Amino acid sequence: MRSLWIGLLAIVSFATVRSAERAPSDLIRALGGEDAVARLEAEETLVAMGDAAIPGLERLATSPGYTVERQYAFNILAAIRTQKAIAVLLHVLEQEQDVMPRGALCQHLGRLGVEEAVPIIGKWLLTIQGQPVDIGGGDRYGNPMVVTRSYAWVRHVHALRNIGGEQATPILEKMLAKPNTGKGGERINRACRTDLAELKREAGFWQAVRRVPGLEAEAKRLFAFFRTDTLALIRLYHDKLIERGTEGRWVLESLERHPDGAVARAAKAMLAHYGKLKE
After folding, report:
1. Over the stretch 147-177, which tens digit does the pLDDT of each residue have?
2. What SS3 string covers the chain?
């Protein structure tokens, strides 16, 4: 049994080394192949390469259609998350005419909290303001799709909520001033109402934070940490703090012991003034 495990580890190690030694162009071609393991290895290796992989990924990200390999390019660029990678995603979002790939881009940029995406997303949303929107349950060939075209528009809305900030609120207010019609339009309107309420609640939190001198920088440091950590639990901390309740205090108390000194100091500063945030 021990020899079997050693053999399997050797195979995995060889595969990893072999992927790392391949040129970016070869790895990018593998993203469109039928071998799922090869696609996964290529994705992991390209992420590890960072900015060196961006020229090839940019060519794929700007290619036409909504292919599997193009979706991989979006995923990898978002995982690299450097300034150059984000710039590519923003450029594609600005130029892309098809709502489906734009919806995927919005999901990534919203999760990363890229504020530069807000006016671009707003521009696209306002192109359908007040218009009828069908659910759009299939692609142009009539094949059913897991993500419908109307839900791709909803992803635009959710991205504004996830990014937050003062620029996002007036966009959703404009959308609701002249709501969409049709079954797909009802989905978009509902998302706008829900997300606008959350943005206004978050705005109240930041107003309270700004009343305490020097606290805004510490709060932003914590919220940046919430975005970059991959644990789903950490991402929920954002909502707990916005609510300014007992659970938010528990979050700060747990983060006081965080191994990252900057995160721990920010949590301690927030905790010292937490009672004032509810006034």
Report:
1. 688 999 999 999 999 998 889 999 999 999 9
2. CHHHHHHHHHHHHHHHHHHHHCCHHHHHHHCCCCCHHHHHHHHHHHHHHHHHHHHHHHHHHCCCCCCHHHHHHHHHHHHHCCHHHHHHHHHHHHHCCCHHHHHHHHHHHHHHCCCCHHHHHHHHHHCCCCCECCCCCECCCCCECCCCHHHHHHHHHHHHHHHCCCCHHHHHHHHHHCCCEHHHHHHHHHHHHHHHHHHHHHHHHHHHHHCCCCHHHHHHHHHHHHHHCCCHHHHHHHHHHHHCCHHHHHHHHHHCCCCCHHHHHHHHHHHHCHHHHHC
